[in-house]
Amino acid sequence: MQIQILASGSSGNAVFFELGNTRILIDAGISARRIERGLASIGIRAGDLDAILITHEHSDHISGVEVLARKHRLPVYARPRTWSMLGFRDKLDSDCCRELPLNLGIGQVEVVPFPISHDAVDPVGFCLYHQQMKYVIATDLGVVTPVVREAMACADAVVLEANHDLEMLNNGPYPFYLKRRIRSAVGHLSNHDAADLLTGIPRKSTMQVFLAHLSRQNNLPALAERIVCQRLSEHGCDVGNEVVIHMTYPDQISGYCR
After folding, report:
1. Residue 20 zone, left/alpha/beta (φ > 0; ψ -120 to 50; rest)
2. By Cβ atoms counted within 10 A, which residue in 69, 140, 153, 175 is the most buried?
3. Residue 258 has what pLDDT?
4. Is the backbone of residue 68 left (phi > 0), alpha (psi -120 to 50) or beta?
5. What is the CATH number of domain 2-257?
6. Closest among 123, 83, 78 to 100, alpha carbons compared
7. In this structure, are strands 207-212 and 2-7 parallel, antiparallel, or unpaired?
8. Pair 30, 61: CB distance under 8 Å
9. In this predicted structure, what is the pLDDT of residue 133?
């Protein structure tokens, strides 16, 4: 099993899962060339992907999909309303364009999308199940709903948004309308939001957590890690054993293998 965050942030997102002999890419918001290079660095050929799953239609999640899918003839799964927003659909073979159902089997992996709150037409996170293990990706969500809490519960590994520090955002250079959008229920989770979510869900003995989609202008990796670790410790969590924190970056790969 391996999870590799090829890129994470407002400039582009792509997350690779290898679970048994099944290889899935969630989002392709960087160039196909960068994805190919990133996969090659961990010994994976892009053509060996079993599927690309799309969380939503924003450019930092789909900008590399067309070239990657067309070049390697990869199946791409997205919600029907998300497909309606993707202008490149007609440029792909019809067999590549697949609607994402409520439950999907890809190789040895069961994929269960769940709705999230974001300013897109039908955004989703994903639960991936493989051999009694559960892996979750939940980024680009403005508020934590009961559905999100249930999806995150008892996961073995999660990729979770910790987009901004509220003080940095409020005092930063963004115009007011953009600050309001980020803080809204269809915007992004703050460091404290991510920490509160992690402290409030049931956990297994060990959970691997990737703090993802950090803003370059409104957050710092060290700050996000400190706030989340501090809050977990305050709630009696043995950070480093019960919850292991991994940081992600817009321009370098971070990963976990088991």
Report:
1. left
2. 140
3. 87
4. alpha
5. 3.60.15.10
6. 78
7. unpaired
8. no
9. 97
Q: How far is CA 55 from the centre of its chain?
A: 8
C-alpha distance from residue 89 to each of 51, 75, 96, 170, 229 (Å): 16, 12, 9, 38, 42
Map tokens 């709705």 to a residue. Answer: 115
The two three-digit tokens of residue 170, written as one number: 């409020």
Beta-strand pair 254-257/2-7: antiparallel
- Domains of the chain, by residue range, sit at 2-257
Q: Which two tokens stand for residue 204?
A: 């297994």
Q: What are the distances in angstroms from CA 87 to CA 12, 94, 209, 229?
A: 18, 14, 34, 41
pTM over 0.85: yes
Let me know: does 258 contact 2? Beta carbons within 8 Å: yes
All residue ranges of the chain with pLDDT < 50 are none
Q: What is the pLDDT of residue 242?
A: 96
Contacts of 92 (CB under 8 A, 6+ apart): 66, 69, 70, 76
